[in-house]
Amino acid sequence: MMKKEKELLVAVASQKGGVGKSVFTVLLASVLHYRKGLRVAVVDCDYPQHSIALMRERDMESVMKNDDLKVSLYRQHERIRKLAYPVIKSDPEKAVEDLRRYMDEKGETFDIVLFDLPGTLRSEGVVYTVAAMDYIFIPIKADNIVMQSSLQFTKVLEEELIAKGNCNLKGIRLFWNMVDRRGRKDLYEAWNRVIHRMGLRLLSSRVPNTLRYTREADPVRKGVFRSTLFPPDSRQEKDSGLPELVEEICRAIGLEEPAAGRADDKIQTP
Q1: pLDDT confidence of 135, banded at 50, 70, 90?
Q2: Is-contact 7 52, C-beta < 8 A?
Q3: Helix/strand/coil percentages in the chain, nearest 5
Q4: Strand arrangement of the beta sheet that strand 40-44 belongs to
Q5: Could you give the residue ranges of the DSSP H alpha helices within the chain?
């Protein structure tokens, strides 16, 4: 895993709720921090719900009530010698400013900082934060309302920020989420053609529609998939599409060398 001299600022963003924006922010952060050895921070600026900050609180409560989770957390710390990554609570207008203040006060540096952004660009402060990102990843699902909103959102970013040079953005990538493997392939093929005609870039990784993405640390149940304190349980990662997505994102943002003979951004049918 390649480390950066300056931290990368990366966001998982969407204008529509329920497509996995916050979930993938947490999963990506946990894999990179606890499993791949990178120094990670998360800035939760999705005001007012702050769902990732609330998830950290639930995770801590679950650990306090579950002896197995206590042991797992202790063993993880002994193995990787790292504390949990910080979740910095902020608002859309001051997200980057709050990150810099945190880094100055704590004397910490990071390889990558993940931002959970709100689903609107209506305020000037949000646009400023979006423009400060290095990369943005946008989850999409085969729903007409979600697709129209997501493609419009992506096109606005491309035309108003990247094309005009008004930002730090180096790239925007879409990726399929909640894929129904039994669904209509022609529907995905049709949307892939639309994405291609619009000149947008789509990751080849596809995340299936599975309940494991809702499985948090629990005071009773064993096996964690979505957590701010642990990486996903490796036994639950099979057929989840997550390892492939994380590896492809790492290549896209320059954290890993591209594999020989493998083409990123190739449009494939789920």
Answers
A1: very high
A2: no
A3: 45, 15, 40
A4: 87-89, 40-44, 112-116, 8-12, 135-140, 171-179, 202-208
A5: 21-30, 51-65, 67-80, 95-106, 124-132, 144-156, 185-197, 242-252
Rounded-to-integer distance, Cα 215 and Cα 1, Å: 27
CA distance 54 to 64: 16
φ/ψ of 177, rounded to 5, equals -125, 160
CATH T-level fold of 8-252: Rossmann fold (3.40.50)
Is residue 204 over pLDDT 70?
Answer: yes
DSSP annotation of 158 reads I
Count CB-CB contacts under 10 A for residue 119. 15
Cα separation values, 33 from 64, 84, 113, 122, Å: 22, 8, 11, 32
3-state secondary structure of 228: coil
pLDDT grade for 10, boundaries at 50, 70 and 90: very high
**Tokens coding 32:** 């990179």
Q: Token pair for residue 135?
A: 């990369």
Nearest to 27 by CA among 137, 103, 110, 128: 137
The residue among 242 and 270 whose pLDDT is bigger is 242
Q: Of how many residues is the chain composed?
A: 270
Check whether 89 has a pLDDT greater than 80: yes
* CA dihedral of 185, 187, 191, 197, whole degrees rounded to 10: 80
